[in-house]
Amino acid sequence: MAEQAGSVASLAFPGSRSGETPLARALTTPQGRIGARILLVAILLLAWEFAPVGKGTGFWLSKPSLVAGTIWQWILDGTLRVHLQATLAVMAEGYVTGCLAGIGIGIVLGLVPRLHRVVSPFLAGFYAMPKIALAPLFIILLGVGDLSKVALVAITVFFLVVTNTIEGVRDVDRDLVRSLTLMGATRVEVIRKVVVRSALPWIFTGMRIAVRYAFTNTLLAELIAANRGLGFLIEFNSGNFNITGAYAGIAVLVLCSVLLTELLSRLEARVSRWRG
Amino acid sequence: MSTPSQQAQSGARDSVVGWQVALGVALLIGWEIAGRAGAARWVSEPSKIAVKLWIWLGGPLYVHLAATVTELVTGFAIGASLGALAGMMLGRSPVAAAVLRPVIVGLYSVPLVALAPLFIMFFGLGYLPKIVLVGIVTFFLLFFNTFSGAQRIDEDLVHSMEIMGAGRWEIFRKLVAPGCAVWIAGGIKTALPYALVATVTGELLATRAGLGLLLSQAAEQFDMTSIYAVLLLLMVIGLLLSEAANRIEQRVLRWRQAAE
Amino acid sequence: MDQIAPAPTQSRKRDDPAKIRLVGAGKTFQVRGTELEALKPVDLGVGGEEFVALVGPSGCGKSTILNLVAGLLAPSAGQVLYDGEPVTGPNRRVGYLTQKDTLLPWRSTADNIRISLELKCRATPRAEATDRVAQMMELVGLRGFEHHYPAELSGGMRKRAALARTLIYEPETLLMDEPFGALDAQLKLLMLDQLQRLTRHRRMTVLFVTHDLGEAITLADRIVVVSARPGRIRAVHEVRLPRPRDVFTIRFSEDFARQHERLWDELKDDIIKGTDV
């Protein structure tokens, strides 16, 4: 089996000696990797821009330059700001509400296992339901404004956070609780000092995962029925067969998602540093 | 003869079930009363919902149920198999891993379900846009999981297989694929609920048939009973899907559980 | 698909009686952009049916030599020859046993042992394979554990299963990289004894890496001392202890002690200097 540098097969099914091809060696350096990625993205963008396509395909494909132009237009005339703010507002409100409810109820359920056992199949049932299906219901009950969207996001976040919080509270070291009680601590003190403290990592995990769900569900809610927001932008342009506009919306979406993820991981790194 | 502690345990279990039944019944009764007392505009009544479901199950439901299930299963099957395959193949290639990783991680963070309107624009109102949406969402989730798994495959295992004379395809079949099975199962567990969300979202936006259509039609007509009926059905489907995913995971983890 | 390398012609064999030969073979690795010389060019020959031990401090390149012979690495300098032919890929004529038992965790013990017989290059009909697996399991003392998963076996049992898996396809050469390092003293002696019997019975060529001098002296015909990184061959010692050797009592013989002392003298400088792995 000679070294098959450059053969596609060796990319998919590399053997032991594949790490020794010049390509692989170049990629061991960080510069090599970044260079390769930039090259990849550049090739894709150029291909998209200059691909020789007929009128029909051209309509559906659009071009990066046009898309960029639309985004620029949006920045200039404030469209972007308006919609991004709307999305952010709904997301934040829903997230905070959901977290507070989730943590509060999670702690209670965690502390009263009996109650949790009784309630858990009901929780499981709701958890399994695709929350987006609640959108039409909420719109009828709460109107077409922001409230229905916030409610949707809040419920999604709630289920996530409550599950993690319950786990965290249940995970508490019984011995620790017992020894503190023997020292004379009241129930409330024990809860504050031990239970909540040791449940924190779980709670944080839940909150961390919930951010992404909040983002996703805000967008989904805006898709279904809204007149503002990033999701609405995408839906509106798609509905009008404005391909470039739809792509522009998606591009903004991708950018925001990446920024959000990056922000979250930086935050996480910070938090874990001072927690040791 | 069961021991006193066993009897105590089963007694405790019975009481939990007892409370659950009591809670369920209390909720239903409360709901019914609220509905009859005038809040039916918002909450309908369990009795009416039950009747509606009964009528639906007599016939009209199946077209929509079939549509939703078809879209879900087709999209999932295609997306999952392609995603797992791609994950396994690329995960084993250090070249691909080094270059693609940040791109994939970046894309993974994008809520792909938001692309639903795009696909409807492309593919119209039939099954296809939903299948494509479910397929893409599933693909990425499975790809990411399987990719991680394939990267973690012990090189020493690969070496020993090569020495024994395994060809590349044999290594794939006997080492990489079973080695990734755990990750694939995990990916399926994550992806199934998402697939359902994608299907319902697509249907809510625009469709000719499906549970989402029932839902949006009911909403337009302020038909609360039907809305709740559909929600109940979706809950059941969701539960079935997660049970299925759990069973798959159990099966795959047999060898791990043997050690515990 | 890939095939086993064709057997060399008779005339080749007569030219060079060595089964394994390294000619100026060296290895340099690229790690994060810098070069790391693991093995300086060395010359080494291992004759047919010979048992050669490689000893030296940790990280000195013994394993690199083994991997070169196994074909898992390509030499950066010089040549690696097996039966007179250069090694250009994973060497299928050898068996390879490492410290880590590379059993597949999702296969039962019997299925693990059977795996080499499932491969295309030596496909064996099911019935015959089952027989041979049973024989092998009997040989290594694992009868009764056919359906157990590796996670359910003790370390020593997994080692024996790995040995069975390696021997079942009857390789003519065995490459071993500190295979018994993780076992307790009793078990180690048992395995050494078994290894000696099997390799003599089947007339195998063995290249055996260890840091345990006693192990080396007990089993080997020759001991190659490798110096600290970058690895060089410092010396080659002949082991003149008569065969067959009783693994359990040979440690108490004077000749053994003398040989041990000589080797230790050779190595202690390197070990005391401390190798930075």
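The mean pLDDT of chain C is 85.
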